[in-house]
Write a structure and sequence with these properties.
Keywords: Membrane, Transmembrane, Transmembrane helix. The protein is mainly α. It has one domain (about 1-195). Helices cover about 70% and strands about 5% of the residues. It is built from 6 helices and 2 strands. It has helices at about 1-30, 35-40, 50-70, 70-75, 80-110, 150-195, and strands at about 115, 120. The chain has a two-stranded antiparallel ribbon. The protein is elongated and about 65 Å long.
């Protein structure tokens, strides 16, 4: 029962993380808080991968719901090992989602924003392998949307941090679930043989 409480606490931790990932990804579609950029297709292509909405958001909400509902699963299927096997599968889904979110956010951060410069609409930092992140004086090359570099760097960094936490939580439950699914039946068999 201790492992069920641990899984439930991890489920509760995943819900706000997934929600924040969804919000951060949605905000990336509206640099400068305006809809005109999305209407004219002037947002980074990586935003359209929905890394925060799909990966770090809805795919992570699946394991969160499974972890929270494990007590009901034990009541219906009768064994904690069965519930733990289900939590392992759900943790793998969460790992895939958070890993996808982390990877795409990192690539988007390295490429930099899509913005208007003297040369027109482009990704001015796409070939400098993220060096623009350490050269803040170069950010002024983007004239529209206003403060788009700060906007992207902040939101993508948030997505990186949140998805890393989600990944860690899913790894913890994966390990806990595997240990409980594999070791508990063995322990019960040993107890039974000792009592017999």
């Amino acid at each position: 029962m201790c492992s069920l409480g641990f899984a439930r606490s991890l489920g509760f931790a995943l819900i706000p993380l997934a929600t924040c990932c969804i919000v951060a990804n949605v905000l990336l579609f509206f640099p400068d808080g305006k809809m005109i950029y999305i209407q004219e297709d002037h947002v980074s292509t990586y935003v359209w991968y929905f890394m925060g909405i799909g990966g770090g958001g809805f795919l992570v909400l699946i394991p969160a719901c499974v972890f929270l509902g494990m007590g009901k699963c034990v009541d219906s299927c009768g064994t904690e090992s069965c519930a733990m096997c289900g939590s392992v599968m759900a943790a793998l889904v969460g790992l895939a989602g958070s890993g996808f979110c982390f990877l795409i956010s990192a690539l988007a951060l390295l490429k930099g924003p899509y913005c208007f410069t003297k040369m027109g609409w482009e990704s001015p930092f796409k070939d400098d392998r993220g060096q623009y992140l350490l050269a803040r004086e170069r950010w002024s090359v983007c004239t529209q949307p206003t403060s788009v570099v700060e906007w992207n760097v902040t939101l993508l960094s948030i997505l990186l941090g949140l998805s890393a936490l989600e990944f860690l939580i899913c790894v913890l439950q994966l390990i806990s679930g595997l240990v409980n699914a594999v070791c508990r039946p063995c322990c019960y068999k040993q107890e039974y043989s000792l009592n017999a």
